[in-house]
User: Fold this.
Amino acid sequence: MAFIVNEQSTLVPQLHCYSKIRDRILPCFLLLLALIVPALAADKVEISVDATKTGATINRNLFGQFAEHLGHGIYDGIWVGPDSKIPNTRGIRNDVVAALKAIKVPNVRWPGGCFADGYHWRDGIGPHRTVRLNPDWGGVIEPNTFGTHEFMDFIDQIGSHAYVSVNLGSGTVHEAADWLEYMTAGQATTLAKERATNGHSAPYKVAMLGLGNESWDCGGNMSPDYYTSLMKDYSHFVRNYNPAQQAAPGQENKEEMMKIAVGPGGDEPRFVDWTETVMKAYQNHSWSWDINGLSMHNYTVDWQHKYASTGFGETEYAQVLKSTLEMDGLFNKYSAIMDKYDPQKKVALIVDEWGSWYAPLPGSNPGFLVQQNSLRDAVLAALNLNIFARHADRVRGANIAQMINVLQAMILTDKEKMVLTPTYYVFKMYVPFQDATFVPVTFDAGTYKHDDVSLPRVDAIAAKDASGKIWLEVTNIDPNEPAEIDLNVAGLNAKSANGQTLTAPKVDSINTFDAPKTVVPKPISGKIQDGKLALSVEPKSVTVVSVE
Ligand code: AHR
Assistant:
């Protein structure tokens, strides 16, 4: 018997078992068994969680959503109007609200996107709405029936917070300042009285304020210097007056509104200069303006050749996941620039647009960015959420694009029908990680190879929640082999691991209106084996367990 080394550098025995020689069969079989059993054992993944050490808080805002006036993201997706036969509360669909409540959406970014820099808030208040066009997204009619009050009602119904992006591109500082006064003033100003006349006497809360969107492109094609000086004006004049959101001098108020400046959009060289310019200005900022966040946009997309969202195989699965892992490098790159000007990490990096961007579904309006959502998207979401968690000291907010019917959506609707996507279930499974404390995990990720793509075979994060419970997430990227996990938790005599796992028959399995349960989580438990906590996770799966 000789050993050869195959491509994966594992030793493979060259056995010569001649069927004719009966008395050699048994020894041959035993020999084969003796070689295979340790080989399988070697495939085990040892995960060590050190519950005695903790890191940054995994900010709940990392699980934020994005809802733009784009395609059926708002109209049909959220808003059906009070006269609709679809069950609704003041025009907002009840099925969607119930589904979103269950994933504890921390904040919703609205009204865009590119749409925000063409949005004029007065078009969307009061009894007479201004009907306009939506030139960014399909050139369709924008009725403005969903405006400030409807958005705030929606936020209230799902138990979330408002992340409002103001118009730096085609609006004015005056217009944006008035909008914030209209929404937040507690005293009887003319704008606050107008808000009351329109049905809401109490001031609204605005938790986060976006100072423009992609101002280097659809938000106005600005140079970094031009944007920075305009952004300073907005930062100073666009004030939140809500009494509950004010901080007493020298004190912090957790409800104070965060102001988020436009930051980089992917890996293009121009974004280094952009980030440097904004952060350098921040370093020298005076009392009269401030920012608390810098936005970053990064989609998993090939702009030249957009991938299909359904009907693909292992090759496209591996390629897309390889591309999504580039998020980590972007954080390293932009965090390093931010560290230079803000070593105390006061300014959060907020990834307020991320997710998969595929080719539009055949037959759909290409301006509506309609795509399906498969098991691949579930794995992609988990990988990104884990990258966010590992950078939680600087990355303290993220908004997946987009919440309903657009790009990597949580929910798809068609008239009265609604279906929850694989990505929705990942967000649901990750709820225990919201505001939990990062706990270090060590493991040998191994390698999954397909064609010329090499990826880590598994990924994992762990966290401790407010009650002290340890949560572990394991993603098995390998679509062909299960991963046998041996779990060791320092500081805890772990005896059980219980939770949910999400997988499906194929990498491109999807949920549809007719078959909504193809990709849904099912229960999973670890077992004590040989004194160790063992967890077996299926190929191409996302698993979240609590360890006790
Ligand atoms: O999410 C779709 C679009 O992508 C947004 O409107 C824009 O900000 C980005 O380019």
Summary: The chain has eleven helices and 29 strands. The pocket of alpha-L-arabinofuranose is lined by residues 68, 112-114, 213-214, 353, 401-402, 407 (CB under 6 Å).
